[in-house]
Structures are given as structure tokens and as C-alpha cells.
Amino acid sequence: MPLRIAGLCGVIAPVISLSFIALAIAYTPQFNWFTWALSDLGVHQAALIFNSGLIVGGVLTTIFAIGLMQILRKQVLGFLGTFTLILSTISLCAIGVFPESAGRIHLYVSISFFALLAISLLIIGAAWVRESSQRYLGLYSILTVVVAVIAAWVIPHQGAAIPEIIGVLAASVWAIVLGIKLF
Q: What is the pTM of this model?
């Protein structure tokens, strides 16, 4: 796969996913950032918009992750990190395929997405830190996770939407920056 296509997917996947989330919020007037989870949007009037955005975003991010894997596959940590990122993107698609109305599986794929995403960025970061020419990308990847976790911890909330959007925004910026680099 050409790295330019992967890079383009790294840039447009977050834009598409976040646009679909914003559109779903606009069509769900009862949505509350402080008491809801983003996944609640997947079972209300804008369910098709929300769930489709996650699936399309997950597929595009998988293409991006495969491009990253081409660059990092020679290192064990790089391969492991990008493979974990691919598992995370599959989980993102699964959130759209298995909304809250699907039962307990939704909880499992949601937790898997966020956990695997954070783990993948940490492993990819460690791989790049070990490669002196890419150390800044490694530190950036690790800091992305650290800052998102701290922000999600300190910003008051009762529901899951705020920590979820913080994680999504942090990962989106990371993907856009790396997507531009691949492009």
C-alpha cells in the first residue's frame, strides 16, 4: 500500500469520524456531555449517523495503521505497536456494528478500543524513542496518551462522553500529524 494513501487516511479518518459524531449530537438534542457516553448516540435518533461514522473511521484508520506498520515493521516494538493499533481500529468498527442495544459485547469492544489505542500509542512511542532519528515522534506519541489520561482524570464528569472525546481528540491530532508525515 502506498504510504501517501495511508497518510491521507490518517488525516481524513478523524475528520470524518468527528464530523459524524458532531452531526449525531446535533440530531440528538437530549445529548448531555456530562451524563452520557458517546455510545448513547448509537441507539437514539441519530444512531445510523453515529455508528456509520465509527465504522468508516475505523476502516480508514486501519489503512493508516497498515501504512505505519510498513515503516515500523522492522522493529519488534514497532510491529507490535502497529498491530495493536490495527486491533484498536477493528474494535472501533465493532462499536458501530454492536451498539449499546447489542448488549454486553458493546461494553467489551468499547473498552478494547480505548485500551488498545492507548497501549498502541505507548508501544509505538517506545519504538520511536529507541530510534534516535525519530525520538521526537516517540515522545509525542507517549505524551499524547499521558496528556489525554490526565485531562480525562481532572475534567469533571459523571458520564463517559468527556473522557471519551478527550481520548478521541488526542488520538485524532496524533493521527493527523502522523498522516501528514506519511503523506
A: 0.93
